[in-house]
Amino acid sequence: MSPLAKLLEAALFASSRPVPLDELRALDAEASPEDVQAALDGLRAHYDDPETGHSFELVEQGGGWQLLTRAEYSEAIERAQLAQRPQRLSAASLETLAIIAYRQPIGRAEVEEIRGVSVGGVLKALLERGLIDIVGRSEGLGRPLLYGTTSAFLEQFALRHLEELPRADELAIALRADPRPL
């Protein structure tokens, strides 16, 4: 393992959040973005090698890189209460979050028009949990606030980018295949 890979491994081990490539690059001023990416690719290949048998993996999500326990160990770790469980989102929060994720930047009035109910309390809760943020103001009457998702949203849903959200046509197929009541 190269010295750069060891340095990245130490930084990722010490961090509890996804670390963006730019922050990882700051660890070694002489390393190019390509050097850092190659070292990350090497680390991921090392952890994924069945010969070495690691219980964790290097994952790109939430706009950065993070070392995570492999999913097959999550049930035992939760049972032993060693991991902090993320708080569940209500149906209203999930609906509002989905609207914001797919339509961002979006104002409160537009979200309320789509949902058909007031979302002030839900927006406040999502802001407090760091899943959405105020990303600007609309040019419309009263210059209302616009909301967008955050890197914490990507991290919570294990997404690298918003482009990984299912497309509308994929959602329709998934709902037809699994016709559970909503």
UniProtKB/TrEMBL annotation:
<keyword id="KW-0131">Cell cycle</keyword>
<dbReference type="GO" id="GO:0051301">
    <property type="term" value="P:cell division"/>
</dbReference>
<keyword id="KW-0159">Chromosome partition</keyword>
<dbReference type="Pfam" id="PF04079">
    <property type="entry name" value="SMC_ScpB"/>
</dbReference>
<keyword id="KW-0132">Cell division</keyword>
<dbReference type="GO" id="GO:0051304">
    <property type="term" value="P:chromosome separation"/>
</dbReference>
<keyword id="KW-0963">Cytoplasm</keyword>
<protein>
    <submittedName>
        <fullName>Segregation and condensation protein B</fullName>
    </submittedName>
</protein>
<dbReference type="InterPro" id="IPR036388">
    <property type="entry name" value="WH-like_DNA-bd_sf"/>
</dbReference>
<dbReference type="InterPro" id="IPR036390">
    <property type="entry name" value="WH_DNA-bd_sf"/>
</dbReference>
<dbReference type="InterPro" id="IPR005234">
    <property type="entry name" value="ScpB_csome_segregation"/>
</dbReference>
